[in-house]
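Long-time lurker, finally posting.

We've been working with Sulfur reduction protein DsrE (Streptomyces inusitatus) and I want a structural starting point before designing mutants. I don't trust myself to interpret raw outputs, so I'm hoping someone here can both generate the structure tokens and explain anything notable. Sequence follows.
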Amino acid sequence: MAKKLVIKVTAGADAPERCSQAFTVAAVAVASGVEVSLWLTGESSWFALPGRAAEFELPHAAPLPDLLDSILAAGQITLCTQCAARREITEADVLEGVRIAGAQVFVSEIMPDGVQALVY
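Top reply, 14 upvotes:
Generated this for you. Predicted structure of Sulfur reduction protein DsrE:
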């Protein structure tokens, strides 16, 4: 059975340690060959926009742009539909490779047997 990890990150610059943990776990999982789906919700939604990850700083943490790039290269990043709408973010605004999807897609990803989901 293939391994899959679904991570929903709700924290952004407002809770930098939680945010960094989510991106770090996702990037390490991708590097380990795990299928990863990272969901950006709440304040992490802003990281779907070009340049926003570069503004994030946390001492002793891997640079967020590097983590984001590695996840985009081998995993899936999804921006929550409602979170995008509340921030007036459209598909035309987001980084290449980021999709916008809602709760139905999230539930379909976490329901199959063997899927692990984490929320940060």
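Before you design anything, note these points.
The chain has a mean pLDDT of 94.
Helices lie at 16-31, 64-74, 81-86, 103-110.
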